[in-house]
Specification:
single chain; 279 residues; alpha/beta; Rossmann fold; 7-stranded mixed beta sheet; 11 helices; globular
Amino acid sequence: MSDHPADSFTGRFAFGENWVDYARRIDESHVEQAIQGLRQLLGVEDLKGKRFLDIGSGSGVHAVAALRLDAAHVDAVDFDPRSVEASTATLTRFSAGQSWTVERKSVFDLTPATQGTYDVVYSWGVLHHTGAMHPALQAAASMVAPGGCFVFALYRRTILCPLWKMEKRWYANASAATQASARRFIIGMKRAMFAVAGRDFNAYVEGYKARRGMLFEQDLHDWMGGWPYESISPMAVDRAMKRLGLTKVRAFAKGGYFLGVRWTEFGSGCDEFVYRRPA
């Protein structure tokens, strides 16, 4: 493993435990939603002949989606050994006989000199949890081949990010019972907010996987415990990518920023970005 200082970050959240639990529940409907999500981000119908790198593969469902879109080969890497276990199990279930690998590897272990570059480098909601987001972006972007795409999602910066940083650090180091109590509190708050707004919370939970093929319970646990935690504005993303020689293809990002901060959001969701390395 890498000797990058971020990889020795203490007190980080056990993402892999959450992904192992989720991986057991994956079915074809989750895979299909992951496929649709990839198509929307990439703006293509398939990945025929492409090499695909999934950084922070988690459950492995998006690696499966890439193979279903006819990627020639997929390499999935994750720092958490339990995530490696989850990704391996999911790919074995849904993509047996296809060309893929899963390795325990940090983003800071990745070098073009040892494993080449990729037509698509994908990292959804991962690099802001490394403890060194900007170096992680640089490391991931270095794996993009000429003419290839870097597809990633990062937490948007909001006025409450300092609060969420404290909450996530606390939650990641709390007992399982305390974490469960905290989740019940947040769910109760959400139910109340939905009721005030005249919305059906149960319908929201039932339709949750349509957004990325995920389950509400797993995403809530993941979000509350996502430590280490960093966030960024779309403008700062664009500046960083330009410095790395990549050009924007598309972004699914909220506006309303002032002084680099979004002031009108309670939580902190992810903005999605696609950048290309010139051929």
